[in-house]
Amino acid sequence: MILAKKMAGRAILFAGPPGTGKTALALAISQELGPKIPFCQITASEVFSTEVKKTEVLTEAIRRSLGLRIKENKEVYEGEVTELTPEETEAPGGYGKQVAHVILGLKTTKGTKQLKLEASLYEALQKEKVSLGDVIYIEANTGAVKRLGRCDAYLSEADLEADEYVPLPKGDVHKKKEIVQDVTLNDLDHANARPQGGQDVMSMLSAMAKPRKTEITDKLRTEINKVVNKYIDQGIAELVPGVLFLDEAHMLDVECFTYLNRALESTLSPIIIFATNRGMHTIRGTEIVSPHGIPVDLLDRLLIIRTLSYQVEDILQILRIRAQTEGVSIADDALAALSELGGRTSLRYVNQLLTPCSIMAKLAGKEQITADEVRDCADLFADAKKSAERLQTDSEGFLH
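The chain above was modelled as a monomer; its predicted structure follows.
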């Protein structure tokens, strides 16, 4: 639904006991969405600061979760780099040499072209780490250089390659090309905190590399929203609603909830996912007790998803995957013992026992963890319930 853009402006609540996978679900959603969909994760306690207003922190998080995909037809020089030769001249005053210009050769499936570029573009090529065999494009109007990857003709040069391979560009070297750029509204806010030019797309994007000079005001954000809406109406840009994940939602106060309630009604709103492990809880800043510590009027807007505690069979599967990931060898009887222990305590506790059990098995000269190591570690390391019981029975030994 998120990828189909049918969830914008809605909110979800993950409610369940600790250790039931609420944060893991949110991270899984971010992985599933991919890098093109904005995903912003904050904990409710991060909202409170002595320097920044609560609503300002939330506004920034919301705008980090809203993407803008800008499409423009630009005149570019594109191709595989076949020549990259800087030509030097004597520096003024006769001290050393400096780059006067650079000769760049580009090749496509249709032909080749040699370009003579000024010295500043040589610095841009070095910044992008361009070398022979790379596929690049240079914008004719601005001189911006973008490295797309290594030409796939060099794919068999090495057994292991960390580089991304792209095919040799088609058509002429000099052509018109649709350039797609993904930015967030927060990027545009910071870029235009001190306006440096016109109100066109290129002015807004070019300002992104400049440092922030002034605070971001509501007036500035309103102006940026107007420009963004204009480009969306003209078909130049497309709004990409992302996901804002708010963990420990019960820590927010009534002012934050009121602000979020209003933000959900805005046309520029991401999908907001709340997560909490509280049942009936006092709303921070009031004396009102409400389900999950969230006001009833906001709860009415939320799609509430219950997360349940793991069964022994589920814990067994998770522990098996975790052991494989950590490279820990564990016997079946030890895995069953850990799973039963997890059923009585928690998944987090038995996950933490894997490493101590592995160390104890190595000290005993064993190749894998057995049930004996599980029993020993369970006696050595207390879980939350056992620790609480000890405090009740032996509270005199602790300071009050």
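DSSP finds 13 helices and 15 strands in the chain.
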